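seq/struct pair 1
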Amino acid sequence: MGTLNITAMQIGIQESIKNALLFVAGSLMVEMIYVRISLVGINWVSKQDKLMRAMQWITLGIIIALAAGSIIAALHPSNEAKNVVLQNKLHRTLLGMFMCAINPVQIPFWFGWSTVLFSKKILQPVPAQYNTYIVGIGIGTLMGNCVFIFGGRFLVKHIQNSEAYINWVIGAIFTLTAFIQLYKIVKGKGMAERLSDAEERR
């Protein structure tokens, strides 16, 4: 459960399944690029700590906006206004790409998993295996997002006043995520340090 799949669920509820899937497609494209970077360009990425830290603050701002929008929607269930981040005419594929692109936490996340697979010799540094690995990540992420999108739609249709409840839950999740993100920025290690730790484990 994270910012992107919760946002996809919200789009599925407030707009349409098509728009939610377009959002997921956009985020998937960027995520797979990040995975590729984590496999072959980690040395360059590890030197971009200031850029990654700035992106973390931007991500925090978006999460706070999502939390506020969801809580406002829960407080005013008759109001059809969308979450502030969704109140735009930006194509949902581009919105997905943008929100995924400014969320740099995926780079150390996938680098860590890739490190585990390399160390167990499950993943080999071969282009064909890299491509299969990336496609597998894309399919798995798509399936996970579909659980949120269709699950959210199901709840709205079968539970009375469920949209208000879901907005409260989404608002709470985003609020908690914002606190975690802030803690990571203030107290946590920088991107370069985390990547270095992962490299040592590898």
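seq/struct pair 2
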Amino acid sequence: MLLSGGLDSYTAAAIARAQFSLCALTISYGQRHAREVESARAVAQALGVERRLEVEIDLRAIGGSSLTSAEGVPHGRDVEAPEIPSTYVPARNTIFLSIALGWAETLDARDIVIGVNALDYSGYPDCRPDFIAAFERVANLGTRAGAEGGRFRVHTPLIAMTKADIVRRGVALGLDYSLTHSCYDPLPDGRPCGTCDSCLLRAKGFHEAGLSDPLLLR
């Protein structure tokens, strides 16, 4: 399970837990802050994962994103606008899924879970069903396990859910969303900025679900 510490990955992991024993992979990729990694640790503990692995890979050397450079994160953007925002990290989900695939093959696991969403999201191309299907083909073509007849599957339990649906599902599962972190550009004290794409989408989800975000009640 790719576990970032955000609302989506926490919910996806909780859904997957009903079917699988979870091994949680968190990747620190040189993003602007370490707050989400701290949340990933808290979320993993709450989920009672079987194993945890943290991997560091510094994507700042590649650049190309306001999450891995000094470029400012956009605030107050129309999250339904068609353009891909500067917070897109080049090939991030391809890189993350590749690392997850390597660990899965080592663990003799054949199921990878990722919390991507193709409805309420910021327009990232690596969150689309076509991309996930293509990566699954790569996983089965480019591994020893696949060549020997194994079958990898990439599970996306949130892919067709709105953010409100995700929030409702998580609340029904008893998840403590105060453990999570979604903000791209948190304030110096770690609180969410409230105006980046991720904060706006999170607020939209809680509002449409008719619920209050526990992070804003502190």
